[in-house]
Structures are given as structure tokens and as C-alpha cells.
Amino acid sequence: MPLADSAGVPILPGCHPDPTIERVGDDFYLATSTFEYFPGIPVFHSRNLRDWSPLGHAVDRPGQLDLTGVPSSGGLFAPTLRNHRGRWFLVCTLVHGSGRDGDFVLTADDPAGPWSDPVWLDAPGIDPSLFFDDDGRAWFTGTELVERDWPGQTVVWMREFDPVGLRLVGPRHDLWHGALTGAVWAEGPHIHRRGDWYYLLASEGGTEYFHALSVARSRAVTGPYEGHRGNPVLTHRHLGRGYPIQNVGHADLVRNGDHDWAAVLLATRPRGGADPLGREAFLVDVDWEDDWPVFLPGRGRLDALPTAGTGPGFPSPGEWTQVRTAVTGFWQADAAARTLRIAPTGTGLGGPGTPAFVGIRQRHHGFTLRGDLPPGAGIAARLRDDVLMVAERSEDGLVVMVTDGGPARELARVALDPGVTGVALGSDAETFSITVDGREGPLAAVPVGLLSPARAGGFVGVWVGFTAHGGEPVTVRGIAYTGHPGG
Ligand code: 6LW
């Protein structure tokens, strides 16, 4: 199945980093990172590798994992999804948890869930992965910061994994520091086997501009691994900051049909240096030459392509998420009625607990999210606790505020007739703006770069959604998200 023609269009637009993929028969399954958002770790299904539908979330129960105190861009990092003899395994890291954190494994009979409670693993570092060999043995890899020879130096390490007892056993094997001397953060390690070779994929240079995918191989699963002379095998860091797809890396391989292979990976699509969509999931072709993988054969890069628009429509119920798990069960999305009911949580949008905010990923550079706001409801774009824009409806008007690392600043305040409730948050790829039904032009606007990880830092893209800021529950009606074509 040739995939290259659509490689420049994300298979999952909006913040879907660190994609991991697994195949069972003719079915493909994929999961991505979700950081401080709950429910966490969405699992998707596809038959053709291009069109993905959500199956559910691996972390979907209060009490399953404690995200209460995780900071912005902490929480659930870089899962790996694997199936072994009908049983599903998902390994992941909870970073900066206020309770137990570190690497854990979840298991399930069905990737749609229910997934088990976590079993914590005695594993340092981040980016856990599993490899099940043909002989029935299973191997766990992870990335640990060692900084022995240079700053930012990591080691990809391995131990055997007991898939019944769900624990690491046997000695540790240190496999690789990445392709280049001085490379920082050789991460996202995944082992795959093809014939008699074991391949180790890892992405180095950090998950931003210098991200680069490299590969090493070995005849024995525990090494020694020999880096490819052609490393890095895929990067966009040589294309310059003006190139429309950046930060390419963190790949996972899958067999596509009987002979072909494909990979999922993350990349960003900045516009004018701003990347509010965060790191998105892409799919690329993989060929093999001399028993080494060739990513995007004949091209060597993802070409930016125009994307289709969507909507206006109510986001599927599975897209709505909240921040952390300090409070749960305070909102309900009703797709048939196109409403979202949100109860106050006692925390404002700036956190640090669970603010009364329910949102979806911004999936298009140009988009509009609208809703009929009753008094006490708001509409917001959130990058992190301290970088956000919100418009709050009161009995007599609307106030627009922006927070950029400090206290909230008021951008606009207008009186509105009680009958005017339609408020929209949108972007034309240059500014985020707030508009009100029946009023000419935007009420307030901020540059897109303000809500952009490239400027504000962090691993997460923008979420857009609704808030409750008064003392009573609110119901937002007439909700519609429109993604504009072109990006
Ligand atoms: C993830 C690491 C990375 O753990 O960013 O691209 C971190 N890579 O592999 C968070 O997504």
C-alpha cells in the first residue's frame, strides 16, 4: 500500500505526540501521549493506516492513575502499545506525579478497554518500550539520562520483561547512546525484528528543531548494536526553520501488508514560527536496503500538503478532556444535543488543580469553536496553566483575558444584551481572536505565537474548550468546531 503521497498530512492532527503502533491481522492500533489531560492515552483503530477512529482511552478511570498534581507538560509521556498472543500491553511513564510516578504497564484483553490498573516497574528514566521475540521472550527498553561523557547524554537500556508477572527480570544491558557523539536525548527507543536482525530506533537531538531519527542493529537482541553509517535516517533539521514541517522524530515501525513496512512518527507544522498544534502524528513509508530501513524512500522528507477542513460539527464525545484528576465527573458532553455541561470545580483556569475547563485539541491552524454561553460560562484556548486566553460571560457582558506567564490581563470588556450568547474563539493562523454573534470584527486578539510551544515551551499543543467560572453548573449549547481547509 503506497503511503508516501499523503505523508505530509498528519494522520492525527493536533497534539498527538510520541505515536506508537501495533498490528494484529488486518487491524492497526495506535496510541499517543496526553500529559496532564484526562482521560489519557487515546487508542485508535485503522484498517488502512490513513483513517483512524478512536476506540477509547487506556487511562479513563478516576483512581487508575493519580494525575492530581502533575505540572503542565508533566503527566503521561510516550506510551508503547504491543499485543502478545492476544493480550494487550501498554507501557508508559507518569512524570512528576504527586503520588507514585515512573514507568508502569497496563494490560487489556481488548485495546478498547477496559485497561488494568497500573503495575509499577522498577525502571529508571522515560520512554519505555516492549519487544516480544519469536521465542516467547519479552524485552523492555527505556531511556535514562546518564551525562557521563557529555551534557544531555542518555543511554538506551534493556532488561528482560516477564509478561506474566509484569516485572523486569535479569541483568541490565546498556545498548546505545545515540548515533552522534554529543547527541542529547536518544529517546523513544523501540526494538523491532526483521529476519535475523534486531533494529533499535531512537530519536536524538531533543524533540524540537534538532530532532533526528537514527537506527542501530544487532544479531542479538541484547546487543551489541551497531549504528547505521547513514544516520540520522530521517530529520528535517537541515531544511531550515522556514520549512513547513519540523521536529520530525520519535518513530515506531509496523509491517504494512506481508512485505512492506511503515512508520508512525511525530512532527510539527509551524506557521511563521508558531506551532500551536503541537506535535502531531504522521505516517511514512519504509523500505529496506542492505538490511537497513529507508524512511520515505526517494524523498527523504515529508512534503507539506494542504489539509481538508472539517465541520462545523460537535466534536466526538471521546475528544473532550479535562486537566488532571483532582476532580472528576464534573462535566458531560452530549453529542446529540450539541451541549456541554460543566460544574464548577473550585479551581480557576490557571490551575494548579483541575480547573472547570473541558476542551479538545486545536486540530487546524485556521479554526472556529463556537458556543452559546450562559452567564458563568467561558470559552478558552489553553496551552498551559499560565499561558491561555479566555472570554468569560457574565449577566451583563463578556470579559476577554490573556495570561502569559504572569497575572491575567484584561484585553476587552463589553456589555451584551442578555439575548446575545453566541461567542466564538478562532484562529486565522496569525491571531487567536474572540468574536461575538452580531458584532462586526473581533472583540480581542492575540498573536498565535503567544500560545505556541515554540515560544512558551512544553510538550503540549493548544486545547480549546469551555469553562465554568461562576458558582453554578453551566450548560453551553450549540457547540460547533470548524476546521478551515489549508492547515
Ligand atoms: C517524550 C520524548 C519526547 O517522552 O518528548 O519526542 C517527550 N520525544 O520521547 C514527551 O513527549
Automatic annotation (TrEMBL):
GO BP annotations, alphabetical order: carbohydrate metabolic process
Catalytic residues identified in the record: D18 (proton acceptor), E187 (proton donor)
SUPFAM superfamilies: Arabinanase/levansucrase/invertase, Concanavalin A-like lectins/glucanases
Keyword vocabulary terms for this entry: Glycosidase, Hydrolase
Origin superkingdom: Bacteria
GO MF annotation list: hydrolase activity, hydrolyzing O-glycosyl compounds
Entry-linked Pfam families: Glyco_hydro_43 (PF04616)
Site label Important for catalytic activity, responsible for pKa modulation of the active site Glu and correct orientation of both the proton donor and substrate, positions: D127
Family statement: Belongs to the glycosyl hydrolase 43 family.
Protein name according to UniProt: Glycoside hydrolase family 43 protein
